[in-house]
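Take a protein:
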Amino acid sequence: MVIDRASIERGLAYIREHGEIRDVILSGGDPLLLSDERLEWILKELRAISHVEIIRIGSRVPVVLPQRITAALVRLLRRFHPLYLNTHFNHPDEITELAAKACARLADAGIPLGNQTVLLRGVNDDPAVMKRLMQKLLAIRVKPYYLYQADMVQGTDHFRTSVEEGLEIVRALRGHTSGLGVPAYVIDAPGGGGKIPLLPDYLQSLGEEVVLKNYQGETYSYANPAPILVEEKRSVVNDCR
């Protein structure tokens, strides 16, 4: 499929016709490889749609082509707030001086930055490497957002780790670095099932007493209030009025 002006216009028309769409993502290829003029046209069209509240850009440009994050580009982007940018650092060595400066330019323009890392065998499937990556991201004002289990893409099985290894990496982050530095570990479910979060087994049992295990393996209990039925919630709300 060729993504040309006509196909983008069809996408814009669809968004205009569906008032339930409040959050729009510009993504792959890479929208920041477009010219400033073409990018500006798309952003203007989106901002003219009253029900679009948030625009997000997904781009690896700050990592692999930080020179593209020019002062002119940043001035353009800041005109379309609220605008968020998620980038894609996979290893701490990718956080070069130029990449850090590019992220600083974006952050200084009030653009919140997130990062989506893919768990890759032989690249970042090591708790120490992953912790260093997350801490370096925070230092350049990029919030770790997602840690993806690698997709089942033909020819890439040598990069895929087991889910058990991914859970061990999350366990090595939780409690061993700031909570800000712990991304959501997810599988983007095959067949369009969406992102499904995965967590180590912190919840041991659920009932009148909730039994929990912390990052150090110690067990704690929490008294669980009885759930309130929907009808009771409505009654409480009405009484408050």
